[in-house]
Write a structure and sequence with these properties.
Number of domains: 1
Mean pLDDT: 91
Low-confidence stretches: none
Largest sheet: none
Shape: elongated
Strand content: under 5%
Structural class: mainly alpha
Radius of gyration: 21 Å
Number of helices: 5
Helix content: 55-70%
Number of strands: 0
Order of helices and strands: HHHHH
Length: about 140
């Protein structure tokens, strides 16, 4: 299997081609077509087509959102365990103060950077994106979609 390119802030975003470039466009186009059909041929079935297409489109987005939230919860657990191993006992109480977004951002930081970044994240209330920008030595996450 080919080695993936090292990740960094510029290239860490992942796309699932079947979802992002097929499923989403198909549902979006279907919703547009159903609205056009309602205007061209008003009636109960055309209106129901818009309702059905809307429900299906919302379902697709919600399914994706649920998967992403689950990944965030797993990352939160992994990062809390990692921080327990990397931080001093006196600093470990700070782990609970980190938001899920901050923990998700910290997953890209190398072990040596983590304690200082945790303190910065808490004192400056850094966002996920700001934490990622502050990372000097990037630790790739090749599993997330």
């Amino acid at each position: 299997m080919a080695q993936e390119a090292p990740q960094n802030l510029a290239n860490h975003t992942r796309f699932d081609p079947l979802f992002h470039f097929f499923t989403l466009p198909v549902f979006g186009i279907t919703w547009i077509i159903s609205v056009v059909m309602l205007f061209l041929h008003p009636g109960f079935f055309s209106a129901w087509g818009v309702v059905l297409a809307t429900a299906a489109t919302i379902a697709v987005f919600k399914i994706r959102l649920y998967a992403t939230k689950l990944q965030d919860r797993i990352i939160r657990l992994e990062e809390r365990l990692r921080l327990l191993a990397l931080m001093s006992p006196a600093s470990q109480a700070q782990i609970e103060k980190l938001s899920i977004g901050q923990l998700v951002g910290l997953r890209f930081a190398c072990d040596e950077e983590v304690p200082a970044l945790v303190q910065r994240a808490l004192t400056e209330n850094l966002s996920r994106r700001e934490i990622k920008k502050a990372i000097k030595i990037w630790r790739g996450d090749y599993s997330r979609v």
